[in-house]
């Protein structure tokens, strides 16, 4: 199974979602996912190529290729690409059902036109994701 979604302007290639959501996420320069918390999913981010700034309760850290960061449900986390190159990121969420549906919702909504911050917060909130 492989499905490519538009997640807030960047592709997400879904590889698996049966019990564990797995997707490759090419993160373009300047891409930013604000700090947020998942109510139902644990999330793991693995940097396959490039450097990414990870955001957590502890602050910001630079994650180089080979870095794996785990965020339990409820943990504050986010990331951004401060470089001038695309970063290849592997995103895993467990159980991942809400994550998969949320990313599909973003894709469907983006097909209708640009999303506002309120749109993003509203969609995310439907799937147990809270920003800030």
Summarize the structure in words.
The protein is of the alpha+beta class. It has one domain (3-131): Jelly Rolls, CATH 2.60.120. It is 18% helix and 49% strand. The strands form 2 sheets. Strands 1-2-3-10-5-8 form a 6-stranded antiparallel beta sheet, with helices on one face. The protein is globular and about 35 Å long.
Kindly list the characteristics that best describe this protein:
132 residues; alpha+beta; Jelly Rolls; 6-stranded antiparallel sheet; 5-stranded antiparallel sheet; 18% helix; 49% strand
- Average pLDDT, to the nearest integer? 95
**Unreliable runs:** none
The percentage of residues in β strands lies in over 45%
Query: Structural class, please?
Result: alpha+beta
Q: Give the CA-CA distance, first to last residue.
A: 33 Å
CATH superfamily: Jelly Rolls
CATH class: Mainly Beta
Number of domains: 1
> Which CATH architecture is right?
Sandwich
Q: Calculate Rg over CA atoms.
A: 14 Å
The spatial strand order of the largest sheet comes to 1-2-3-10-5-8
């Amino acid at each position: 199974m492989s499905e490519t979604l538009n997640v807030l302007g960047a592709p997400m290639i879904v590889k698996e979602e049966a019990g564990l959501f797995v997707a490759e996420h090419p993160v373009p320069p300047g891409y930013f996912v604000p700090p947020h918390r998942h109510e139902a999913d644990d999330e793991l981010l693995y940097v396959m190529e490039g450097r990414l700034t990870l955001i957590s309760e502890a602050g910001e850290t630079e994650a180089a290729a080979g870095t794996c960061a785990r965020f339990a449900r409820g943990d504050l986390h986010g990331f951004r690409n401060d470089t001038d190159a695309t970063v290849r990121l592997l995103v895993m969420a467990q159980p991942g059902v809400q994550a998969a549906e949320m990313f599909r919702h973003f894709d469907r909504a983006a097909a209708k036109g640009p999303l506002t911050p309120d749109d993003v917060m509203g969609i995310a909130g439907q799937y147990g994701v809270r920003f800030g």
